[in-house]
Design brief:
- The complex is a heterodimer of chains A (346) and B (314).
- With 346 residues, chain A is an all-alpha fold.
- Chain A has a domain at 30-261.
- Chain A has helices at 6-25, 30-50, 61-78, 83-89, 101-130, 135-153, 176-199, 202-212, 214-219, 224-250, 255-259, 262-276, 282-298, 306-320, 324-335; strands at residues 165-166, 252-253.
- Chain A has a two-stranded antiparallel sheet.
- Chain A is globular.
- Chain B is an all-alpha fold.
- Chain B has one domain (2-287): Orthogonal Bundle (ABC transporter involved in vitamin B12 uptake, BtuC).
- Chain B has a two-stranded antiparallel ribbon with strand order 1-2.
- Classes of the chains: A mainly alpha (346), B mainly alpha (314).
- The A-B interface holds A 56, 58, 129-130, 132-145, 147-148, 151-152, 154-155, 162, 262-263, 267, 270, 274, 304-308, 310-315, 318-319, 322 and B 50, 107, 110-111, 114, 116-118, 120-122, 124-133, 136, 243, 247, 250-251, 254, 285-286, 288-290, 292-296, 299-300, 302-304, 307, 312-313.
């Protein structure tokens, strides 16, 4: 059971204070800061299943991509334009597709909300079926789903087809990345508080029971099927918000390289909780920040070898440090002989 | 939508003979898929590892074969390329075995006892590493070995079967028969099957199971290498193409069940035919997507079947 200790409240307040101060300290790195918030959202979302419930999904990138397309489409439709016309213009003819600042902001928020709700429902329906398969079957099944989604997204001509879709041009004078950053931060805080609350409830205990032994959980009459589907739905909703923010920040959606990119975002969202320590609340957050730092420092030097670096990172972490930073901290504390009272933070 | 209906109409009433072409071509590539899936089933059955790296080994074998064929045909320009293709197969097999053996010693042997997600993710990571390394070594240009075989036409050019597909199927069947004989009738094969059944008992009987694991993984690499040399002249080679072979094999193995060779063959042939139909009816841009989506679909179908007995897929 996860009760928020005083130390964790302090950590959370410190995190929020740092996060609020970050845009003022690093005004030139807003794009990267937006990515951090997106990464935290998708890492926490992945960890809800992968860490807390033992269901390792390779396919959460599906919700990420669908969310992105939904936000972009909502904005276009909000402006009263036709998707078909907008996408056949391919980002050209900019004067014809302009909306004002209030409409832009309102449609962005509405789009994020629609993306969250829609992906909640999609994950509920798909999950009710797919989550009947366990362990590695679920993992590879979602892998297939993730790759397939990218292939199919490129075939819808009203969504721009294989050449992708542009977001609406943000109005002049709008600090888009600041807006996205604080929207992301707010969502992260909401998600964090939700998770802390959730893990204190019976529902959270059932999630852990499924991870520890699903057969016994089922034998005890726990509603495992329902818990699994709802958890995935919640994770999907927040992942979709992350996708929408990420797409709006990049201003462009490519079906296989940005939206449904299994070999970048799709793996990063698994790697981040692993780096931080899966099955903990702070693990994904720390992992997301650490991964973004790693990526920003090394990614440009690794041009052409980024997948090699990513693959090696996966192998090294999985083989040698499967418990991540949080696990390392626990081991360190145990070795230093600290009292075990707070061990229950898992 | 209209063209989909038109295509279905074409198959059902206008030119039913086209069905024959789709089926024959599907069955011919199915032999290749069966080979790759059999390798995956071996590793899965013996070592309890789902080898996501399968596709990268296939593509690697293909490149080895491509370069061998190119070098040899440079030496003796007149000879038919089929000859060089056949010669390149054992080279590709050896290269695949060497690569996978090295990867086994470096990574895979460390994760044998860990849970399946660890091995899934680790082999996924290796797949990424190999994909991009091959991209750097062999460039992102699409490569193909030209077997210079004619396309056979039957029934007034209504049914066309590329000679390369037929040749690939023949080579695939020969390789598969050899491998099945190896697994059935040699001491190594018996030791491997014993390890798959019960590793602890096998150790007690004096089988060096660690060595068996290494050799099984290398054998899988060799199988993938052979399959890759077939891919090189039947399809095209591209460094980032591995996942489709991995996921095809996975779909075949779940459909068939681990350790069911006959099932693997039928599932692979079925998948080949299915792919050709999907590509023809929906259009070629949907073909890969339809292959990937078959993985969750087969899983669901299998899950529904076992659920009738109140069980789940193990």
């Amino acid at each position: 059971m996860l009760k928020q200790t005083a130390a964790q409240w302090l950590a959370m307040l410190a995190f929020v204070a740092l996060a609020v101060a970050a845009p003022f300290a690093l005004p030139n790195n807003m794009a990267q800061l937006v990515d951090v918030m997106v990464f935290i959202l998708i890492a926490l979302g992945w960890d809800m299943l992968g860490g807390q419930m033992g269901y390792n999904s390779f396919g959460n990138v599906v919700f990420f991509g669908i969310g992105m397309y939904l936000v972009a489409s909502t904005q276009v439709l909000w402006g009263g334009f036709s998707l078909q016309e907008y996408n056949s213009a391919k980002g050209g003819n900019l004067e014809a597709f302009v909306i004002g600042e209030p409409a832009y902001v309102a449609s962005l928020i509405a789009g994020l909300a629609i993306a969250a709700v829609a992906n909640f429902l999609i994950a509920l329906i798909v999950g009710a079926q797919l989550l009947q398969t366990r362990g590695h079957y679920f993992a590879v099944g979602t892998l297939g789903l993730g790759v397939a989604a990218g292939e199919f997204a490129g075939t819808f001509s009203f969504l721009g087809g294989g050449s992708g879709m542009n977001f609406l041009q943000p109005p002049d004078g709008l600090q888009l990345s600041t807006l996205l950053y604080f929207l992301g931060l707010a969502t992260v805080v909401v998600f964090y508080l939700f998770l802390v609350w959730l893990h204190g409830t019976r529902f959270g205990l059932v999630m852990n029971a499924i991870r520890d032994n699903e057969d016994k959980a089922e034998a005890m009459g726990l509603p495992t099927a329902r818990v699994k589907a709802i958890s995935w739905a919640v994770a999907a909703a927040f992942t979709a918000v992350g996708g929408g923010l990420y797409g709006a920040g990049k201003n462009f959606i490519d079906p296989t390289e940005v939206a449904f990119s299994l070999t970048t975002i799709g793996v990063w969202m698994i790697l981040m909780p692993l780096i931080g320590g899966k099955g903990t609340i702070w693990g994904p957050i720390i992992g997301a920040v650490a991964f973004q730092l790693f990526k920003e420092f090394f990614w440009t030097f690794l041009f052409g070898w980024q997948r090699v670096a990513l693959g090696l990172l996966i192998v090294i972490i999985v083989v040698f440090f499967p418990d991540g930073i949080m696990g390392g901290l626990h081991a360190l504390r145990r070795r230093l002989g600290a009292p075990h009272g707070q061990e229950a933070a898992r | 939508m209209d063209n989909i209906l038109a295509n279905i109409n074409l198959l059902t009433s206008l030119a039913p003979v086209l069905n024959l072409e789709l089926i024959v071509n599907g069955l011919l590539v199915g032999a290749l898929f069966a080979l790759i899936a059999y390798g995956m089933a071996l590793v899965w059955g013996v070592m309890n590892i789902i080898n996501v790296t399968q596709g990268a080994y296939v593509v690697f074998g293909g490149y080895i074969s491509f370069y061998v064929v190119r070098a040899l045909s440079g030496l003796a320009p007149g000879a038919p390329p089929i000859l060089w293709i056949v010669i390149s197969m054992p080279v590709a097999a050896a290269a695949g075995a060497a690569l996978s053996y090295a990867i086994f010693r470096l990574v895979v042997q460390r994760i044998l006892e860990r849970d399946l997600f660890i091995s899934l993710l680790a082999t996924f990571g290796i797949e990424l590493v190999l994909q991009q390394t091959m991209n750097q070594l062999f460039t992102a240009e699409e490569r193909v070995v030209d077997a210079q075989l004619p396309t056979f036409a039957f029934l007034d050019y209504m049914v066309n079967v590329p000679g390369s597909r037929a040749f690939g199927a023949v080579l695939g069947v020969v390789a598969a028969v050899l491998i099945v004989l190896l697994v059935r009738y040699t001491r190594f094969g018996r030791a491997m099957r014993a390890t798959a059944q019960n590793a602890q008992a096998a150790r007690i009987m004096g089988i060096d199971t660690d060595r068996i694991y290494a050799m099984t993984y290398a054998l899988n690499g060799a199988i993938c290498g052979i399959a890759g040399s077939i891919v090189a002249f039947v399809f095209v080679l591209h460094p980032f193409q591995g996942f489709i072979y991995t996921l095809r094999s996975f779909a075949i193995v779940i459909l068939a069940g681990i350790g069911n060779i006959v099932g693997v063959i039928f599932a692979a042939l079925g998948l080949g035919v299915y792919e050709n139909y999907a590509g023809f009816i929906l259009g070629p841009e949907y073909q890969n997507g339809m292959v990937f989506i078959i993985v969750p679909i087969t899983l669901l179908v299998r899950a529904w079947i076992v659920r009738r007995h109140r069980q789940y897929l193990k």
